[in-house]
Amino acid sequence: MLNLLSIKNYALIESLDIDFHPGFSIITGETGAGKSILIEALSLLTGERADSTVLKDKNEKCIVEAGFMIKHYDLKSFFTDNEIEYEDNTILRRIISPQGKSRAFINDIPVNLSILKALSDKLVDIHSQHNNLLLNTSGFQLLIIDSFAQTLALLSQYKILFAQHRQAFRELEELKAMAQKANENAEYYKHRYEKLSSAKLQPNELIDLESEILLLEHTEEIKVQLHTIYNNLAGNENANILTMLKNVLHASQAISKVYQPAADIIQRLDSIQIELKDIARQTEADANQIEYDPSRLAMLNSRFDLLNSLLQYFKVSDVDLLIVEEKKLAEMMSQVDSYDIRLEELQKKVNESDKALQSAAKDLSKSRLKHLPLLENQVMKILQALGMPSSVFKIQHKPLSKPDPNGLDEFDFIFSANKNVNPQPLIKVASGGEISRVMLALKAVLAQHTQLPTILFDEIDIGVSGDIAEKMGQIMREMSLRMQVLSITHLPQVAACAQRHYLVYKHETQQATFSNIKLLTNDERITETAKMLSGKEITKAALENARSLISQHSTL
Predict the structure, then answer these.
(1) Could you tell me which CATH number the domain at 1-123+452-519 has?
(2) Mean of the per-residue pLDDT values for the chain?
């Protein structure tokens, strides 16, 4: 249950700390005193969005903090799953900075808003005035049915299967589109692949071709120059470099005994002679080996032209990239061949997921339908107690032809407040006061089937008065036997049913207006209830009436 609420720097609230207690408590206050601000601030702890506009002092941060005693609500697994330290007295905190940035904490551990909301949904139900309008929406009606039938876990499992089926179906459709496109392009891929594969490409082939073509185109020139090199080195016996070098070597040897540096010259000349002889032999062999081959040159030029045409056709710069393209095309053609197998496998997966989904949807629907009569009967009993003895409340079931995100069911709450009037959808026939009573009846029934620590009603009694208001207060008092009930009200009959009475009030200074809240003493409670009966001018009769109302319900 909610045992502490602390608000700092929010709207009209400068600083507020209030303790709450088990059972049924009501909150009253004049219009504009700040009751709705309490709801809005507490809503921050349920994951509602906020920005710096909520700050009273734009230079200071806003802090909203609530303490919940959760010892008896089996929530330890939630904390374990989300790696948060568990505390019997768990603290939820939300901080809004002057820059509008928001931070959330659970037991001083930073969390994102989705985790904060997930936990707060298990701790408190804030029923604001606009929630009565939600009663006419299919989503809210379905939530009530699943909460009563305790099928929320089944629904969660079903949603997982639904998402898996949708994902498998999307994958199948995408693969079908890819297969169709691949088949349409198969001939195109084949044509391009055959152009490359028939060329039997080799890495660096173009460079080697260019080199050999250049050699063959200059064969005669190369032979002439190689012969010239050989003749100058060794070919002319009377006038060649090797003969002259031999003479130089003899001259060096002749003086070597009397001229010491000649030994070094001889050694160097020996090395030069060996190298030049090797060059002479190589050039002679090369000159004799090189032959002009016009057919070979023609073939090389043809190959060169083919490669260049392929480079131009595929818009790449070298043969290696052509080889890459060939491999890619081969892979794409292989994929085309494998699409049928992949489509068959994925279709099987879709069929299996659809079968599992249909089975889960039928189980969910069966469990929901089984609980509808009991829900209808329990709501009817409470509506009769709330002054509508001839009312009819039914839940109309509309089976769907195929599963949607919530199953195979669509429901509609139909209602009639009067005898011999055919029930129709709530939105068409129920007045504001009747919708308030239907909503309270539903909440009272759900309270018997859920483990929710706290519920906060914001004027759920709107549109009713007198004896009906008192009966609504009694129902909330009965609900408080199973959960903590807080109710904002303007009705003295409801206020008298509560065990505790909190007053939201506003005070002004020369600088600003502030809202605050306090727990009333018994005498203050009587006075405040008397105000609700007679207005600001409290009469003796109003005080006696208030005292009687409160005393009448104090022993409940």
Answers:
(1) 3.40.50.300
(2) 89
